[in-house]
Amino acid sequence: MRGLVDIHCHILPEVDDGAEDLKTAIRMLAEEQRNGVTKVILTPHFRRGMFETKMPFKRRQFQRLKAAVKHYEMDIQLYFGCEYHVGRHMIDRLDQESGYRMNGSRYVLIEFSSTHSYDYVRERLYRLLSNGYCPIVAHLERYDCFYQEFDRVNELLRMGVHVQITAAAVLGQMGYRQKRFCKKLLKRGLVHYIASDAHDLGKRGVNLQECTTYVEKKYGRELAEEVFIGKPEQILRERSAE
Ligand SMILES: [Fe+2]
Q: 12-22 pLDDT, tens per residue?
């Protein structure tokens, strides 16, 4: 499958635990291309006390990477985003700085700690929604609270929350428990996006093509196109429609 959009990856160089330098970032983007990806939303971490790279530096790195892509004549579009770790001043930060959102849109890729309680997760998501944002829960397969009670996923979707899961988890590379959970989500049509969450060229690399083949075979072409292309394109369209 071609024309994929990877909405979650750590390819922006020198800012978090992803690509360590420009050369690695370019090699990771070449890998995205080989996987059939034509658009990438770069989502460096923001987490208080852990990943707090200043926004001007991140934007400069984004421009450097874009210039390198042009220099090597790579056919891949880059967009600026963020994987935002939930916190106290979340709404103020998102209101003031579009760089914490997905391509400056109202979509926010939001990350929790694996042990956060469901009440806390729901309250934070509700707060985002009531402030006009569209929260996308990053790698939903990682949070314990949904394994404790699966119906919680349905509740979030009814609220208007979007769900992203990781290609490696779908493929079973993160263990059987996560694979089984992803299967249940996909079977019931509860997934909006499947992304790479790539951090490097090795174990946490880009594997979307393998995943598209798998999803297409198991759940059909229509669902595969939706989670790898259709829904991600909606994020990008929102901004261009302004
Ligand atoms: Fe991530």
A: 999 999 999 99
